[in-house]
Amino acid sequence: MTGRDPGAADRGTARDAPAFPRRLWRALDRHPPPGALAVGRRWRSPLRGPWLTSVFGLVLLIGLPIVIITGLLDYAAYGPQFGQALPRDVGWLRPPPFEWPTRPDWLFRVSQGLHVILGIVLVPVVLAKLWSVIPKLFAWPPVRSTAQLLERLSLLLLVGGILFQIATGLLNVQYAYLFGFDFYTAHYFGGWVFIAAFVSHVALKLPRMISALRSRPFLAELRQGPDDTRPEPPDPDGLVAPRPGPATVSRRGALTLVGGLSLLLGGLTVGQTTDGPLRRTALLMPRGRQPGTGPNGFPVNRSAAAAGVTQERTGPGWRLTLAAAGRTVTLDRQQLLALPQHTATLPIACVEGWSTRQTWTGVRLRDLAAIAGAGEPASALVRSLERAGLFNQAQLQSNQILGPDSLLALKVNGVDLALDHGYPARVIVPALPGVHCTKWVATIDFRTTAGG
Prior knowledge:
Residues 223-247 are annotated as: Disordered. InterPro entries: OxRdtase_Mopterin-bd_dom, OxRdtase_Mopterin-bd_sf. This is Oxidoreductase molybdopterin-binding domain-containing protein. The chain crosses the membrane at residues 51-73, 113-134, 155-177, 183-204. Residues 317-448 form the Oxidoreductase molybdopterin-binding domain. The chain has 452 residues and is α+β, with helices and mostly antiparallel strands. The protein has 2 domains: 8-267, no CATH class; 304-447, Oxidoreductase, molybdopterin-binding domain (Sulfite Oxidase, Chain A, domain 2, Alpha-Beta Complex). The protein contains 14 helices and 10 strands. It has a 5-stranded mixed sheet with strand order 2-1-10-5-6. Strand 5 and strand 6 (393-397) form a beta hairpin. The longest helix is centred in the middle third of the chain and has 32 residues, at 183-214.
């Protein structure tokens, strides 16, 4: 097979470089480390080439922006204006502030579910994309020009960024905190590093990806078996093997394998966002599976035992304290049950991606604000009986207090809340992250200003 030299374009760039960099590239070219060239020649798969790499790249170009956008939306849902989104101090990397809506009530459920499930589904595609370009890691010299050096640095941030986000994200949904640092901070700032590298890479490679996709008809490629599979012509990026071996699998087979693995991961994950038999299939999600039966048999993120909340503290002596404008009102559970009750079927969703939809009954938060003498409060600080933990309190926006379905829930599915689900009372607000639907509520402080 003949064709132009894959390194010709890079060497041409090197000839046009200033004298010192040009001498450096030539010195690197003349003195490869022992075995470097031999290792590069061992990658002989005839499947590798711009077309297959571009197919994987197109899937990621469609999927990764959805993961990025939903991740930023999820950060906004935690109320960064109250300093309760993690990490708290992000400087100019804070997204534009806006009031998180309570409608549609499934907003956080869908955004967080998409973020987690799509992130997992894309893992085989990411690994396949890295496999398709791995010969470039062994190219010598590693760079032939200053421009290529900058491109390699952006690739380092891109590959390192996405692998870091995948690893920390998967460990988080498995509750396996092995990294020795704060997940929220690392995942957020790591995400911005990846976003910058991703945007730069797309700007550099999009024209080449489009031309590569146009070079081979997609449907025609899918009709070819291993016997019909031929290497692509040599390319400037050096993706095509210099001495390709015989094909043991077709490009159709490679795409089928990657797609099948993605579907399998999706099938083992999506059940955590549904109610019913499919929840038992969420084998990759330890907290997303159905933990029991009956009205209280839906998932729980943090149990009462883990939170240090005992039956003694939630028994007959429990009282809810409402505060507003310097006055307080204290109510026991029987007094709360005697107030007008409202029932709403609302989802509750966790940052790890699981969610469920249940029927909640309790007192509207806006009615409690009126009892406390708050009128139309700008915000409310809800504190839990849980004395420690990142989420033992939450601040609510005005629309989250005044919404018709925003409740201090006393019952679920027609029965009293179980202790693990927040008995004697918990907050349920449409579209609010589950960790801010505070359980074991002790006090609600209604405030006339949003910042407290």
